[in-house]
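Ticket #4471: structure output looks truncated?

Reporter: J.K.
Steps to reproduce: submitted the chain below (676 residues) through the standard prediction queue, then opened the result file.
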Amino acid sequence: MKSQILRVLAFILCLATLASLVACNGGQGNVTDETTENVTNTDETTVGDETTAGDETTAGDETTDEESETEFTPPELTVEEADGVATVTTATGLSYKASGYDSINGASFVFRTKLEISFADDTFTEKFNRMTMQYRANGPVRIYVTYANYIGEDVVADFFVEEGEGSFSGLILDYLDKRSATNITKIAVEPCKEKKVSFTLYGIETEKIDYYIGSYGSTKFYISNERFKLGVDMGWGGAICYLEDFNCNVSGLQNLVNKADEGRLIQQSYYGTPTIPGVYEPGEFNGSQWNYNPVQGGDKYGNDSRIIDIVVTDTSIYIKGQPQDWSLNGAITPSYMENWYILHDDHVEVKNRFVDFSGWNHPITTQEIPAFYTVSYLDTFVWYDGIDPWTGGELSFERNLNFWGDPKYAADCRFALRQSNTEAWCAWVNDANNYGMGVYVPNADVFFAGRNAYNGSPDPDDGACGYVAPLKSLRLVSYEALEYSYLIATGTVEEIRATFTKHKDFTDNACLSKNSSSLRLPDGDLDLSLMDFSKEKYCSIFTNPNNTTLEYDATEQALKCTVTGGDPYAAIEFGASQTVYNAESFGTIEVVYMIPTTNSTTNYNMELFLSTGTTASAVGGKSVTGQLIADGEYHTLTIDVSSRAFWSGKINQIRFDYFSGAAEGDVIYVKSIELK
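Returned output as attached by the reporter:
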């Protein structure tokens, strides 16, 4: 495995500091960026075997940059029922039989376990690789389609379908092998939730679309305009593996995206639940237990994610994929990732959409939006760290960032934005040539950036790379779409900033504010020796909440911390302050708190992880504890830290693990935390 160490931080930051990191691991063998050879498929002749979109026809009738949003008008259906079997005929003449339902209302079938739909053997005789169903469902369902593959064997492909009405399209399982199918014989429909659901199938159509992959095993595909060439890897879930700026005049610099393995790239990745006994058991990575982790590029064993659907135009690609679970071997997740890649004359627009169909209760976790890997040649990180956005204020530069996965450097790789800073973009550039690539994600809170094995190489397959993840702390909610968009721009720092300024209002990413908590810093520099939470502005100093919601309670005039899962905590990043606080200046820590009597227990153990000197984040053995009382009264807990050997040097972080053994919904009100 090429770069497992890059993935280690994902566990550390998800379960310890909650700044999640997309998987990095050994993946597919070497594949060139271009394949121009023509090859004849064993099933049939491919469509020219082009690797770019400009020379081929688009799929079906789609010609827009994204899926059409026309209003769905249900066609008329004719239904006849006898002995628990309904025969349905659609407006186009398609006929099918339905059974296994509990009741029927017109052509809407109500069932709790499984609806069976069957077709006559001569219904679908033409070869196809893509099928589209018109449907209506009052809840999310899982659909199993049985068809004959290219050698006549029955194959069952399963698809998740969201609640609502309209159409759903899916590719056959061996689309990437350039195969086709015939003869859909039956469809089974099951509810995703444990309750009755109603479902109507208005029709199903099949078609033969182009194979948007290269020859001789390459799964890469490219589109281009006059300014950019963009490539995605269908084997790696349609993640971006290639971006070239035709205006770049740096010799030897072509692809700006590091694609050394399936964990690099520019891609989606999310963190969810830990172990659910008897329901879900994640695997391990580097000796540590993992969480539910859908990763667009695949899993740590090199298994590829599945492509569900694809639509291509000359300057856009739409891809729907089903990602692998990082820590498990070939365990495809019950989730879908959708990506719209759109080329413009001065930037690339990316729209992301994620839906989890697991039904599990996920904790609030810091998520990458997105994971963004660059070639090592881009050595300098730049962003705006002010409170007067889009006014051309002075930029901040980091020219020697270390590996973000090393606990010694993690705090130095974290750049939280201020409350008023809407200029949420950053870039990796080459300091000498002032050329690079940037990403703008409205509503992001933090930039987490660093360099791995820096060597300045422009090779996109080199193990050395740059990395940044715009971060947001939020909860994945099953069956509920998480959507956000971002822009990619290239050029000099000034050109990148000008492009983002020009398009700064392209979206507000409001969806990122749902089920989330802020990681931003206050506009001013607050006194962290006396954190007075009776003043609302101090409530923003906590970052990286794990299984915790943080809010100012006006009635109590205090910070309210509510448990949402196991191991609740939040961190105070002293390194983000303009003031340096030395541990030797403070001998005690006082916490003024109140715990309601409505909590699940009357006593709790609180633990403060103290990170000072060369320790940047929480480390076992470097903590102090105290007992808390839940009696509805305010108390002052005083902890002596003067005799602790590890309490020395610059204070980097204090992690506030306020409850052990807490139940979901337990609450603590914190009036103040003072270093004395």
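Triage note (M.O.): checked the attachment and the full token line is present. Confidence is low (pLDDT under 50) at residues 1-42, 44-50, 54-68.
Status: closed, working as intended.
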